[in-house]
Design a protein that fits this description.
By secondary structure, the protein is an alpha/beta fold. It has a single domain, classed as TIM Barrel (Alpha-Beta Barrel). Helices cover 39% and strands 18% of the residues. The chain is built from 9 helices and 8 strands. The chain has an 8-stranded parallel barrel, surrounded by 5 helices. Helix 1 runs parallel beside helix 2. The two termini are 25 Å apart. Bound molecules: the ligand Cc1ncc(COP(=O)(O)OP(=O)(O)O)c(N)n1, 4-methyl-5-hydroxyethylthiazole phosphate and magnesium ion. 4-methyl-5-hydroxyethylthiazole phosphate (TZP) binds next to helix 8.
């Protein structure tokens, strides 16, 4: 479907591991009402049937707000439900394999950790956006590789695709990343764990 935004920009929400699909949809709707620009369905503990149920429930919700839904890790799931894209890291499907299966207009995000060279390669190979981080300690992914904030401005000077920052981003540190020029900030805990999710989404979105 046609999206209102052609690019990845602003607040990029990453779902937490929640089993209750109704609750997940409620929380996601609050982020959408708060101005999220992109949603990633990421659930590292769900089994395949639950991932199918949850991602299928989120897709019409995202479509209602004209926000792209990106699936983390699972290429076949992204194809099966007709999601707007897929996000992959070093242990996931390769870009050639993804390009064989996903329609050309679908979004492909690639994790680049602290490696600018990996991002340059990913852009050449057809990534729609690249992600760097973790920039701060992350409760969602405690063992994530760390990256320096200066990497963002360096990346922006050599890449054409949107640059996403991730990892432990909250309302106290997000501005330091936006000031370096990142196109989007990917947030899970500080968004879905907020007392008022919609308000938190608005606060993050206003930084752009
Ligand atoms: C926007 C965004 N950036 C980075 C990641 C991390 O991807 P990956 O390294 O594959 O780790 P998991 O998320 O699969 O644990 C991401 N999901 N999204
Ligand atoms: C998936 C991922 N990759 C690096 S940090 C991270 C988790 C982001 O979640 P949070 O915003 O809660 O740190
Ligand atoms: Mg992954």
């Amino acid at each position: 479907m046609a999206m209102s935004r052609s690019e990845i920009s602003g607040l990029y929400a990453i779902t937490p591991d929640i089993t209750d699909t109704g609750r997940l949809c409620q929380m996601v709707e609050q982020t959408l009402a708060g101005g999220v620009g992109c949603l990633q369905y990421r659930n590292k503990s769900a089994d395949a049937p639950l991932r199918l149920v949850q991602s299928s429930a989120l897709l019409p919700l995202c479509q209602r707000y004209q926000v792209p839904l990106i699936i983390n890790d699972y290429l076949e799931l992204a194809c099966q439900i007709g999601a707007d894209g897929l996000h992959v890291g070093q242990d996931d499907s390769t870009l050639p394999a993804i390009k064989d299966r996903l329609a050309p207009h679908k979004l492909i995000g690639v994790s680049c950790y602290s490696q600018l060279a990996r991002a340059v390669e990913a852009e050449k190979a057809g990534a729609s956006y690249v992600a760097f981080g973790a920039f701060f300690p992350s409760a969602t992914k405690p063992n994530a590789v760390r990256a320096a904030v200066s990497l963002i401005s360096e990346a922006k000077s050599v890449l054409s695709v949107p640059v996403v920052a991730i990892g432990g981003i909250d309302l106290n540190n997000a501005a330091s990343l936006v000031a370096r020029g990142c196109d989007a900030i990917a947030v899970s805990q500080a968004l879905f764990g907020a007392e008022d999710i919609e308000f938190a989404a608005k606060c993050f979105s206003r930084l752009f």
